[in-house]
Amino acid sequence: MGSNISSGKILVVDDDQAICVVVSEALRRAGHEVKVAGTIAERARLLAGFRPDILVTDVKLPDGDGLEDVNAIIEHWPDTRVIILSAQNTLNTAVRATEQGAFEYLPKPFDLNELTRAVKDALASRRASSDTSGDSAVALEDDNQISDDMPLVGRSAAMQEVYRTIARVLNNDLTILILGESGTGKELVAQAIHRLGHRRTHPFIAVNMAAIPRELIEAELFGYEKGAFTGALNRSAGKFEQAHNGTLFLDEIGDMPLEAQTRLLRVLQSGEVTTVGGSTPVKVNVRIIAATNKDLPSLITENRFRQDLYYRLNVVPVELPPLRARRDDVVLLARHFLDQAAQEGLPRKTLDPEAALLLSLYSWPGNVRELQNVMQRMAVLTREDVISAEAVRGNIDVSQLSASAEAATGDLGRLLAEWVRQRLSMSTYGHGSGLHDDILALVEPILLRETLSAVDGNQIKAASLLGINRNTLRKKLNDYDIDPARLRTLEITE
User: Fold this and answer.
1) Which residue, among 173, 8, 195, 13, has the nearest Cα to 95 in the 3D structure?
2) Which end of the chain is more exposed for a tag (fewer CB within 10 A), N or C?
3) pLDDT in tens, 326-382
């Protein structure tokens, strides 16, 4: 029996009992009927007598891959919506979820508000398409083509959003505009979209607008006829023709001259190219992915970029964060590049803990490209099997490291120092009496609350993280009138 748009039948599958309890309770409070399972086998048993409107499932389950039978479930019940949860936060997982027909993919840790929003949207989608036979995404012809060796690496929240966007555009031909600083991996994103999409058996052609002389851009893009200009000895197909049925990647689109922009816009509107010196249009079928490190709206204001072309290109924007905004990924990337170097025949190297810390504190002005170069250099030049902190210092700009480290640790210190100076200047603290207790009263409750929130109010875990015994923690909580039960976080971790 169906449910109304505001409530539904939901099956939650996760081997973490805490997640099942918290998620099911939140969904029940929202008015939904909820059943839970901890394994694929339990899921199958429940599905024999319970038809869910929404299936919420983890990927890694004790008895197998939670994604494996998702497509079969959707084929059996086309109006069932599937929401995937996973701590395996890779592009592979996001793509597999989409290819299996999942409505939404939520990487762990996730927020309960985000999950309840996804459930609400899924129910609305279910009602809106109740007359269709199903809306699962077109599956890849060969699931084995998807692997974790994709060129994009990162588990940060910022990269998860990139993965989710990529997964959503694989099986359509919407134009993509990739935005990001130099060295963030814009071409890697373009390659991933092509490699995993339905055009993957056709050419991927990349063109760097900044590397082509102005007078040759049109000939490079659209081709030319014999005799069109001095040196044109034969007809030459342009990049559009070369990319026919595939993907054309226009890198550094912000550097394209205005006159060429006008011609490009005409091609995008008509789907036809006319070679330089030619008169007969040639039909082309390409997917356009553009990229830039420039601020295109500012260029539009300066009359250096066409507004209509910008709107044509900016259908689906993908914003790549700089490496300094995804510090959690630095060490992961560094180890990836060392593994990559070893696979290419260089000596296998590892990072000692201090070296890893220094890498994560560095600002990386050259972004991922700089990190890759540094790791390859150290793989070649470092004699020891373990890369030390000293080796890292010898291969980076130490001034950038110092600034970054100060930014990471200095703000709190400066604020505390200023607070202490202010208090010492007050007559009340003429002899320093009570200053120690006052600063503890300021800092310690924050420390206790944040630690308890991070472990969902678990006092044993909190005491362990703080390095104090449970009785001491309990006394401090009582002294500061802190109730652990009120600090249960909405964020669910793996």
Assistant:
1) 195
2) N
3) 887 888 899 889 988 998 998 899 988 788 888 888 889 999 999 999 999 999 999
Residues 22 and 112 in one domain: yes
Tell me how many domains the chain contains.
4
Which distant-in-sequence residues (6+ apart) come within 8 Å of 242 by Cβ?
A: 203, 205
Compute the distance between CA of residue 226 and CA of residue 233 in angstroms, rounded to an integer: 5
Enclosing H/E stretch for 79: none
In a domain, 3, yes or no: no
Do residue 128 and residue 202 come from a single domain? no
Give the position of tokens 């689109």: 253
Rounded Cα distance, 484 and 494, in Å: 21
Please indicate, yes or no, whether residues 310 and 186 belong to a single structural domain of this protein.
yes
**Nearest partner of 15 among 66, 83, 90, 78, judged by Cα:** 66
Question: Of 145, 164, 187, which one is at a domain's C-terminal end?
Answer: 145
| C-alpha separations of 4 from 8, 31, 54, 134 in Å | 7, 11, 13, 19
Which residue numbers in the chain have pLDDT < 70? 1-6, 89, 111, 127-151, 401-419, 421-434, 486-494
Q: Are residues 301 and 374 in the same domain?
A: no
Q: Give this prediction's pTM.
A: 0.62
Can you tell me whether residue 82 is helix, strand or coil?
A: strand
Same domain, 315 and 189: yes
Kindly compute the dihedral angle of the four CA atoms of residues 298, 302, 305, 308, in this order, to the nearest 10 degrees: 80
Distance CA 341, CA 339 (A): 5
